[in-house]
Amino acid sequence: MKLLVVHHTPSPNCQEMFEAVLAGATDPEIEGVDVVRRPALTLSAADVLEADGYLLGSPANLGYMSGALKHAFDQIYYPCLDATRGRPFGLWLHGNEGTEGAEKAVTSITTGLGWVKAADYVVVSGKPSKADLEACWNLGATVAATLMA
């Protein structure tokens, strides 16, 4: 099984969250799941079609997901619309304020794709705390574990 991690990590806070998500997704107790990372701006429909589940990470800019993640969705939406229905996903967001628009937009797009939310979103404002990073780790581990055979 393949877990695709699509991320836009322009800040140290986003990078810290990304690394925690990856650590959870690649925990040694999770077997049979290949974790593949793709920066959002390089994502292709083939990447999404080849994966069995998804982890998505973005800053919340001006109340919306990053332009990079939106671009990724624009590239893959129609080519992946029917072929990826029912696949699990998770989301982490970092914002300084107003993340609700980003959450709503990602929920709308993933609902349209027919993806299934496998864990609660992790949304952090400001510098991630130890508890925030643990939530990111748990997000990565939970979505990866859903793909274990």
From TrEMBL:
Entry superkingdom: Bacteria
Organism: Mycolicibacterium llatzerense
GO molecular function: oxidoreductase activity
Protein name as catalogued: Flavodoxin
Domain NADPH-dependent FMN reductase-like: 38-125
